[in-house]
Design goal:
Elements: E1 2-5, H1 6-9, E2 10-12, E3 15-16, E4 26-28, E5 44-45, E6 55-59, E7 64-67, E8 76-78, E9 83-86, E10 89-94, H2 102-108, H3 112-120, H4 132-135, E11 139-142, H5 145-184, E12 191-192, E13 197-201, E14 215-219, E15 222-227, E16 236-240, E17 249-251, E18 256-257, E19 261-266, H6 273-282, H7 299-304, E20 306-307, H8 312-328, H9 333-341, E21 352-355, H10 356-359, E22 360-362, E23 376-380, E24 395-398, H11 399-402, E25 407-410, E26 414-417, H12 422-425, E27 428-430, E28 438-441, E29 445-450, H13 457-465, H14 467-475, H15 488-493, E30 495-498, H16 501-539
Parallel strand pairs: 4-9, 14-18, 23-28
Antiparallel strand pairs: 1-11, 2-10, 3-6, 4-5, 6-9, 7-8, 7-10, 12-20, 13-19, 14-15, 16-17, 16-19, 21-30, 22-29, 23-24, 25-28, 26-27, 26-29
Helix pairs in contact: 5-8, 5-16
Length: 540
């Protein structure tokens, strides 16, 4: 590989456009370029905009736009359309595509080495900026064209897979909205809320918040903590009163609500609670806002909102469609866990309290294994487990090389990272597809093996990934500095409400359905990150 200066292989494009007299349709400002994104995510229409005279730099599809202000934000993305941008945004391209591929240049500009250089060589005071003359001196190693193509193909394929999946999620939302309009004619205005709902104002919680409370304490953003008092019944919708006013939340169980939000209960003879929630998801509550800095809603205004009330059978049909769409989006399983099983730390449980050691087999002993030392088994180091609860990689190793000094596990076992900061960050996963049904891995894993008829691996995984579970575990770690660990004894004696197996299987069905989709994109994301960090790290 050859070491080159940026100015030797790349150039700043200087095409001037008159924003007041141009055939171009779009402009890109700094707000349209997101940090660490490979593609420009948005744009504005030139016609009718209020952009200033500094927007005169023309760009073409395939150019790379770098925001020179505040380089710590890491905004440099390839654009997929023609348009104009501000002079404060550098338009960059390659001098010779036979020497440097545009797609590879974009990847170089995503590397830590590139952004560290920009940060170290920035100019100015409060609003730091990057000079072109400074950027031009940046040096990096340039591989052959063939190597550039191979790396770029890998990275961009993974990235576009991720973007495609994002669009799929958006399409799912749009499908629900279009189905709503198709079934009910849109948000037609018939019946005022005052006739069909009861709105409860939130109140300040009368006591100190408790980690072990039986009921969630909620605000406009959802669950904040727990307490032993209940203000609202389940199967109701939370709607923000101040701040987050356009994000309805459905609560299946009882809860307390603070004074930043409303709880809305429906007349169940006329409205299905979940249908009402989905209706609220379609409605734009911001148009009721009368405040400036802090968006606010009033009970009086909400009671005037009008909605169509379809036949109950049609409401039920739509709820079924919407719930299925929600499952396909693999939403927040932590919330799903809370809704189905309650607070796992509460001592006031509808389910029987059990030691976690009674719900699963902790760190099961290795049986006598009829394998030769040359037989293959799966090996899983700590980096192969994501912070999102997924196994992202594993390799085959000869059994003789890993049978000593590593942790043993089998298919359907749950791995729980016991060392800081992996534990606090949520590392854990269910293991599947092990070679010869056997896995060996990092000694920093605890293994939780579900017991047939008592526990599901998905329930165990979701439990151990709950923030509230890990916060409590963090308080009970032993050791010093970066070597603190959660002991097996602590997990063994941890008290948890054990749901019926039927409930666990219902949760597992939701999780598994979504898991099929999420595992694909998760692997793509990790693949993307690994390629960028490893390959570009070598180059830079």
């Amino acid at each position: 590989m050859t070491k080159v200066k940026f100015e030797d292989v790349a150039t700043r494009v200087n095409t001037r456009e008159d924003r007041l007299n141009t055939s171009l349709l779009y402009y890109v400002g700094g707000e349209h370029i997101e940090s660490n994104e490979m593609l420009v995510q948005g744009c504005g229409l030139i016609k009718g905009s209020t952009i200033g005279p500094m927007f005169y730099c023309g760009f073409k599809k395939g150019d790379i736009l770098l925001v020179s202000r505040n380089p710590h934000l890491r905004k440099a993305s390839m654009v997929e359309f023609d348009g104009i941008c501000s002079e404060k945004t550098f338009v960059l391209g390659t001098k010779d595509s036979k020497v440097l591929l545009q797609e590879f240049l974009a990847l170089v500009m995503q590397s830590d080495d590139f952004w560290n250089y920009c940060e170290e060589h920035k100019s100015g005071g409060v609003n730091y900026f990057l000079n072109w003359s400074t950027l031009a001196k940046y040096e990096f190693y340039l591989p052959s064209i063939q190597e550039q193509k191979e790396i770029a193909d890998k990275v961009w394929s993974a990235y576009r897979l991720k973007e495609s999946y994002k669009k799929l999620l958006v399409a799912t939302d749009e499908m629900v909205k279009s189905q709503f309009i198709e079934m009910f004619g849109g948000l037609c205005q018939d019946t005022p809320w005052s006739d069909v709902v009861t709105i409860t104002n939130g109140k300040a919680y009368p006591e100190e918040y408790q980690e072990e409370g039986a009921y969630p304490i909620c605000g406009s953003g959802g669950i904040m903590c727990y307490g032993e008092k209940k203000l609202c019944n389940g199967n109701t919708t939370i709607l923000g009163r101040k701040g987050n006013i356009n994000n309805p939340i459905f609560m299946e169980s009882g809860y307390w609500i603070v004074d930043t939000a409303f709880s809305i209960d429906v007349d169940k003879a006329k409205l299905h609670p979940k249908f009402f929630y989905y209706w609220c998801c379609q409605y734009d509550f911001t148009k009721l806002n009368k405040q400036g800095v802090l968006p606010s809603l009033t009970r009086k205004d909400l009671e005037k909102v009008k909605m169509a009330i379809p036949q109950m059978r049609d409401q039920l049909k739509f709820v079924s469609i919407a719930e299925q769409a929600d499952k396909s989006k693999f939403g927040d399983f932590k919330s799903q866990f809370i809704e189905m099983f309650g607070n796992p730390l509460s001592l006031n449980q509808k389910n029987e309290l059990k030691r976690l050691g009674e719900c699963c087999i902790l760190n099961p002993r290795r049986p006598n294994i009829a394998l030769c030392d040359t037989d293959k088994v799966s090996f899983i180091p700590m980096p192969a487990v994501s912070e999102d609860g997924y196994l992202v990689d594993m390799t085959d190793e000869e059994y003789g090389k890993v049978k000593k000094g590593f942790t043993y596990f089998e298919n359907n076992d749950v791995l729980f990272a016991k060392i800081t900061p992996c534990m606090e960050n949520g590392k854990g996963a269910i293991v599947h597809g092990l070679t010869n049904g056997i896995g060996m891995g990092s000694t920093e894993f605890h293994v939780l093996r579900p017991i047939n008829g008592i526990s599901s691996p998905y329930w165990l995984l979701a439990l151990t990934r709950m923030p509230i579970f890990r916060e409590r575990a963090a308080k009970n770690m032993s050791g010093t500095g970066g070597q603190k660990r959660v002991s097996a004894s602590y997990l063994d004696h941890f008290m948890v409400g054990l749901p019926a197996m039927e409930e666990q299987r219902r949760f597992e069905a939701i999780y598994r359905q979504a898991d099929k989709s999420k595992s694909v994109i998760q692997k793509a994301l990790v693949y993307l990150n690994d390629i960028q960090s490893d390959e570009l790290g070598k180059i830079a």
